[in-house]
Records
---
Amino acid sequence: MSRELFKFKGGVHPPGHKEESTGRPIHAAPLPKKLVIPLHQHIGQTAKPIVDVGDRVLKGQMIAAASGTVSAAVHASSSGIVRAIDMQPVPHISGLPDLCITIETDGRDEWIAHAPLDYQAMTPAELRVQLRDLGLVGLGGAVFPSATKLDPGAAYPCPTLIINGGECEPWITCDDVLMRTHADEILQGVAVMRHLLGSTETLVGIEDNKPEAIAAMQAAAAKMDFAVEVVSVPTIYPGGGAKQLAEVLTGKQVPSGKRSTDVGLQVFNVGTAYALARAVHHGEPLISRLVTVTGHVVRPQNIEVLIGTPFDTLIQLAGDLEHSTGVLMGGPMMGMPVPNLDVPVVKATNCILVKSAELFPPLPRALPCIRCTRCADACPAALQPQELFRFAKAGDFGRAQEYHLFDCIECGCCSYVCPSHIPLVDFYRYAKSEIWAHEKDKQASDLARERHEFRLFRQEREKAEKAEKLAAKAQAKRAELAAAPADKAEPGSATPSEADAKKALIAAALARAQAKKAEAAPKNTDNLSPDTQLEIAEIEARRAKIREQARQPLESKEKT
Amino acid sequence: MPSPFILDRSSVTQIMAWVLAALLPGIAAYVWLFGPGILVTLSLATVTALLAEAAMLKARGYPAKPFLTDLSAIVTAWLLALSLPSLAPWWLIITGTLFAIVVAKHLYGGLGQNIFNPAMVGYAVLIVSFPVQMTQWAGPLELTTLEPGAVHLTLAQSAAVIFGGDLPKATLDAITMATPLDVLRTGLYQQLTVDEVMTQPIFGHYGGVGFEWLAAAFLLGGLLLWALRIISWQVPLAFLAGIWLTAGFLHFFDAGRYGAPWFHLISPSVMLCAFFIATDPVSGATTPRGKLVFGLGAGFLTIVIRTWGGFPDGVAFAILLMNLCVPLIDQYTQPRIYGGARKEPRA
């Protein structure tokens, strides 16, 4: 097939290391005793747990529901008992634990009732809700909720659908192997995508270092009742990036800050298409995925893994070796180190890469930047990494933003080619997080300032209202008093009657204050259930304690 | 340690080593055409540069090994040595090298921080301070052997000249010569036309006798650097174009008073500058269009200084002046980013 291909700027050619893991057939991982399923496995809002500790759950049962528009549900990967809903270590760049549901499996692997979706009979909106509730997210790495991506909104119809079989990261082969073995199902998923997006052109981009996958996909495409063009694209990192692949295939760039549907494209990973086919044609939620386990192991291979399976189980299966120097989730260019081997496989886990000093020698000491601009030549976003580095290092984040810091996709090409071995991407991540933190602080302080200003305004207003009321009341009283004793009082003795009036006013005010004090118990705490009252008491106690703590340092300072 | 976890095999040392290697054809041609004196100059500059680098690293509290082995000090030393007259006295070489390494490099913050090209700073200091000593160029052997009393200096004799200058005045006069640029300048002062000046024996086919071959050897090394992608094409091409266009423009309007563009182009200093000095990444422009502006500007200024300036060659000052403009050039030549607007609004 000859299609005019385009080039994207930059890119690098790291050694592929693909053969290691493509030689062995797909294994299914053993059912672990315990599944730890994080509730935030996608971009967007964390799913809300809908089961309780102690509940029995079935395989495929929704255990946490999507919350908000950009979110996806989470399901039990096997049957068993919910043992905990708490913070657990997860594979995340922050290294921080996150909310997870822990299921003790019962070994029966008992499915919940599920049935294929008649997607052609459903409205697109209904289908998207179904897909969201089946936990579908992009499996290429970004784990963006697929239902959201399948909604082009005003951009409907989206003419070009691109299926990403690029898989440009070294070592990773799960997409390659999936295309070799499940090409038909992938294209069944593609049919559903076309249906939702209204696409007329379907392109499958596969890097030319995967000839078997290309052949399998071409054979499957020939059987489809719609045109699918399987295109072999040059192998270059990050050619499997969605924007890069789209540019290679169509010559179009997604404008900075816009969505790909704005230029009539949408890109999905092959794994997502496969998961979509399982969801629609079998009613199965996303509870397992193909994971490449490779690097410093005895038998590098691809394994079909239930979400929530600990990394350790898979490394054992592939045969662990001594002298490992750490484990990555993802590839060597964009992957992240995991804090320990108990972390579970999540929807984003495409690869478990075990490092050794031989395969991944420690990075040499960084030297100063010599402005050679190799990074700029390699940058697929066409940025000037050497300038961004300079600004980030100097803490000049404003300038960094002016130089398009947020268009950086953190692909790592710049760090890869840097002759001074500067961890450039690190500096960009640092600058981005500083800017985000600053934004958050600014929002918080804006809010605090607004509140403070409103409080001052309210106090002023209340004061004015009070004064007005008092003045009005005093006026009335004075008039009343003046009218009453006027009959008795002798003319000319105006002064004592004035004093009397004042006394009467004070007495009346005191009486009112007393009455108010008597009924001072707050109204909204009446008629509360004992539980709530207990809760309020607890909160009050906590607040008192915090106030105490907050006051202490101040007081001690005052004393000294 | 976050991603990426792999690197390609490049290093600063490797880049600098290739630059040094690419200078070898030029050095070989130099020895062949002008005698072995340049080897003494190169060695002396190298030793001085390394000692100065080590001392400055120690003084600034930096580890010596990674910075001494990056070879950048040797590159500076060689570029300066190749710019100096090959029989310049030892103290001139040492002064220039010290100025380049200590002041132009380390006082500005060391590797990667210098805003001026260190070798060109060293050269500029010397030509301003010691203009007479800076004319002690060994003439091309092809011509000096014709002079009465001329000798082929051996390496030891060259060293003796450089360190002691104990050669008879007549011999020294016989083996040193004005460079073609000097001859042209002097001739034009004497109201000769370019064509009349060009009849003198120092001029060869395009440039000076011997000089044109030296220029070709530098060009060869430069093309090697380009083939290895250690330098980009923009700077050399723009620099040569700047020379050619400016000289050609002047020559077109008054061929009698302005040298031919080929003559200006095929000179060792221009070729050395185009491929080895203007391409210095640290003190040069970084954006693709900026590199073109930088090269064009340096070429233009070189001819302007050669034609109207007070010094025989203008390369060093042209580079230093363009070094000054780099932040401005970079700011106004930012390329379009992926998905960016066609026209970048720039503040």
Note: The first helix of chain A runs from residue 19 to 22.
---
Amino acid sequence: MSAPAPVDEAREEEHRAERSAPSALLRTGLQRYAILIVFAIMVAVFGVDLPSTFLSIGNLSNILGSQAVLFILVMAVLLPTVVGDFVDLSLGSSLGLSAMTLAVLNVQHGWPVLLACLAGIGAAVCVGLVNVFFVVFFDNDPFIVTLGTMTIVQGVIYIVSGSNSVGIVSTNLSNWIFTDEFLSIPLEFYYGLAIFLVVWYVLSFTPTGQKALVIGQSREVARLSGVRVNRQRAWAYIIGAAIAAIAGIAYAGTNGTVDPTAGSTLILPAYAAVFLGATAIKPGRINALGALIAVYFLATGTAGLELLGAQTYFQQIFYGAALVAAITIPKVNRERFFKRRRAA
Amino acid sequence: MPVTDSGTPDDSDKGVSLREPPAPGEQALAPQTGAPPALEVRGISKDFGSNRALDQVDLRIGDGEVVGLLGQNGSGKSTLVKILAGVYDPEPGGRLFVGGEEVALPLAPGQASEIGLSFVYQNLALAGGLSVLENLTLGQRIGGGLSSWAPINWIAEHRAGAAVLHRYDVKLDLDRLAVDLAPVDQARLAIVRAAEDLRRYRTRSGYKHSVLVLDEPTVFLPEEEVDRLFDLIRTVVAEGAAVLFISHDLAAVRAITDRIVVLRDGRVVGEEVTAAIHEDRLVDLIVGAPARTGESAQPETAPVEDQQAVALTVAAMESVGDPVAAGENVAAQHLTDERLHDLSFEIGAGEILGVAGLIGSGAEDLPYLLFGARPDSFGTLRLGAETIDVGRLSPARSVRERVALVPADRAVLGLSQSLTLWENIVMLVEDEHYRGGVFHRAELVALAREAIDRFLIRPPRARNPMSTFSGGNQQKALLAKWLLARPRLLLLHEPTQGVDVGARRDIYRFVQSAAALHHMAVLWVTTEFGELAEVCDRVIVVTQGRHTATLVGEELTEEAISAAALRQTREDR
């Protein structure tokens, strides 16, 4: 009945796709590297303003080292997000739980620090399993479930710690993580880099990563193509929780004492970095390399602002504004501008 | 908007002329007595490009009359409904009369309700998460003239809702969620809501006419529940509305209508009083005279360059065809789910088996059931020497067993729109290109490019997102994706839906050559019976979830398949 309409539509679309190819290429190229361009401009501006402080090894070491905990947490957040479970709020609490378990066992019960670290990871993995049970097995909304588990875990942290900061953890841990340096950068940066390389490799260079991508983009297509959707989602939650636990260990090593609110302040910046990263390198896709760039883009920005004398709360404004701008600017560019031109 | 020919031009901006209501008794039941019909269309045509979907259609519905509108897929039924609903603009020259008054065409969307037309579509348009009561009052609250800020008196609302249900003799719990109702009760709720809109219209305007349009309301209902729906329709008619009942279910139409109008190829080919028409005559009218002669439609020929391209493609396929694969017979036995009853069939190696069935017959479940994508199904699937319990089948297992599914909803279920063309095409063979920890992406892109050439996907841009491709090219990509995995059994559901003519030809050829060269068994399920006649080696007809006919050789014509599918609907009632 409506057979001829698709013919016209097909032709039209064919033409449109062919005609707009060069400009589309330029546009995606711009979009892909926009954050790097802005990054470079930002470094240049801060460098000109503060040549002695901003462009110093100390500052570089500070930027790379101070953000290692956030960077590791970002890799944790990345995994459930890639497979389309856009929010696992409990990862911040998992970080806190792991750090607190480690601190309590090491400081108050005298466990050897390595064993305490393993216990911390185990506790976080349990949180991941609970999430899997309620989100994947019962097919609930991840936002609501993890809002619940986040709150529960936060409560557990208060019980375990007696609402107090716990410290000081074994100096061995601090040495391995924070004090020892390689090329003037704390070791924790290299731990984060190693985790990043593994996550990046798995997501971008294996069929498993490609399947995760299909699950995230079109879950039903993945299911009807024979992908074991729920199994992969479950692994994303569990491995994500384990990586968050490693971030918790890095936190304990960096700070020496563990505060009961440890993870809760980090989870939103971590999501900001993941979503900001999804606008770069592979626009529209959650990707590890983009997240890496986004984390250090935000860290450089805040470090520069601090050196310029801005108060720390400007960091938050910078984070939020960068995120909103990054997801909005490509749309203004593509839809508004091009629609208007086509109409004219 | 064109001015109507009524004497009150100042009202023409609404498209309705508000003349005095006719005196009671002025309008008789039958349209022949001279009283104006509730609804009349004259000379309505509609073109889609060069294709004429409706050609000078005339239709009258008298007050209190139930008129059945019958026709096959593509006969123009839905086009006519969409013109009445203001979705499509008809070609100039058509006229519409409501209660004897002319209404200017085209209708604006939403205008239908202002002239006493109300529609219930197959999907019913209920808000599943809202209660029965909320669904009843939804229409009034949204654009129904009630202020957004008028406080809601839920007690009074409840009372009014109960009165409405009582008026139509429908017993439903007002507080239940619509989604929890049985299918027939959902249909009844939708009809009550539409009928109540009409009653309100009649009260408000003082007119006696109003028309309820029911578009395929019985398709998904079990037989025994259809009668309850009919009781409701009779009540609605007794309340004063006329009904246009659109269906391809002969038994239902014969049971409820007073008069039947048959559309074929956009023309009215018959108009009969229901009581006086024989079923065979009705089938002849619907499918056309050639049903008896067995003459099939002229095959359309693709443009020469396309033919050459297809020939090249087929040659390329032949060169890569592996002679080792002997091909295996496939047998499905005792397939049962909520609509299918103990269906069994076999497909030989290299055979294309067509399955014909009207919507709701259960045929549309088959591909998904055999792929393990439908819960609560039973039966066995034998692939060569292996026998698999369908109830334990999962899509992951099916892919491992090399069963392929091309679903009807390709945009949502078949292809990931946000991924690129090449990523979609190679989705099933990625594992073979991951060796020694290295993902050979370049090989996959090369493989995809080769498939793009072989399957004539245009534009041939492997890195464009899937969503930028037209329906026909998406379908070719989906076919390429599955054929790359070398399936033993290929399940196709409506593989040419929304696909242009050229791509349709290509798809026929690709499936035929794949079946012939790789000895693949193919199951082709569609409601496009002409397609089955053209492509398939054998066609089985499914009606009411049962295998009721098999057509081969000379019998394989569109008309014969249609007749078989239509004739046996509800024969057992």
Note: The longest strand of chain B covers residues 51-61.
